[in-house]
């Protein structure tokens, strides 16, 4: 069974950086899609960045500031977040899409103060 565990969230000031990690356990295929989403109260979960099959895509609001990467040997995907803004405050969720199934972590809270 696939499990995802996020870490690295916290409280930072605007302009600072954070690095989120998502460790996967279970049977993971290298070419599947793994990504990061975020959600704030009252809003739908939105895509932040995704990587898989040699491609990487970012939401427009993080382009140039966030970088997604993965270490297949460690079954881990990372999200390097630079130049953080108060609008980036959200719960960040790790996602794995594999064989038609979406797997989610429990999320990690990122709070950016102005």
How far the N terminus sits from the C terminus, by CA atoms, comes to 40 Å
Average per-residue pLDDT, rounded, comes to 95
Order of helices and strands: EEEEEEEEEEE
Counting helices, strands and paired strands, the structural category is: mainly beta
The number of helical runs is: 0
Low-confidence stretches: none
What is the CA-atom radius of gyration, in angstroms? 13 Å
Q: Strand share of the residues? A: over 45%
Apparent shape = globular
Helix content: under 10%
State the major sheet.
7 strands, mixed
How many distinct beta strands?
Answer: 11
Topology summary:
Blueprint: E1 3-7, E2 10-13, E3 18-25, E4 33-39, E5 46-52, E6 55-58, E7 66-71, E8 76-81, E9 90-98, E10 101-104, E11 108-113
Parallel strand pairs: 2-11
Antiparallel strand pairs: 1-3, 3-8, 4-5, 4-9, 5-6, 7-8, 9-10, 9-11
Looking at this protein, list some descriptive labels.
114 residues, mainly beta, 11 strands
Account of the 3D structure:
The protein is mainly β and 114 residues long. It is built from no helices and eleven strands. Strands 2, 4, 5, 6, 9, 10 and 11 form a seven-stranded mixed β-sheet that branches. It starts with a strand and ends with a strand. The mean pLDDT is 95.
Quick description:
By secondary structure, the chain is mostly beta strands. It has no helices and eleven strands.
């Amino acid at each position: 069974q696939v499990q995802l565990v996020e870490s690295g969230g916290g409280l930072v000031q605007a302009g600072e950086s954070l690095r989120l990690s998502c460790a996967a356990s279970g049977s993971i295929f290298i070419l599947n899609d793994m990504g990061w989403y975020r959600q704030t109260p009252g809003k739908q979960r939105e895509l932040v960045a995704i990587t898989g099959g040699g491609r990487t895509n970012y939401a427009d609001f993080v382009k140039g500031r966030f970088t997604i990467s993965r270490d297949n040997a460690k079954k881990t995907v990372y999200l390097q977040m630079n130049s953080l803004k108060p609008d980036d405050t959200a719960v960040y969720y790790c996602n794995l899409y594999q064989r038609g199934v979406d797997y989610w972590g429990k999320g990690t809270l990122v709070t950016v103060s102005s």
